[in-house]
Amino acid sequence: MRQEVEKIVDAIRPAIQADQGDIDLIDVDEATGVVTVELHGACVTCPASTQTLKAGIERIMKDRVDGVTEVVEVNALGMSQSSVWL
Length: 86
Known about the structure:
By secondary structure, the protein is an alpha+beta fold.
């Protein structure tokens, strides 16, 4: 599964780079189907990055790679996008 996900990341990277951003594959959990990525550049401060992640990247991954259930983002500190400080 990881190799398939890597191919998709490589395929969508030019579109993200065209908007001054980038994407790195961090992890593929084959047991849960969760793919973890890190967005860079303009994607970090872009208010549409969550939309890009869920409606774009996640949709493409689910459509093209069997077993992918979700795509989540980590920030530069390694925290998932859904992490909450208590």
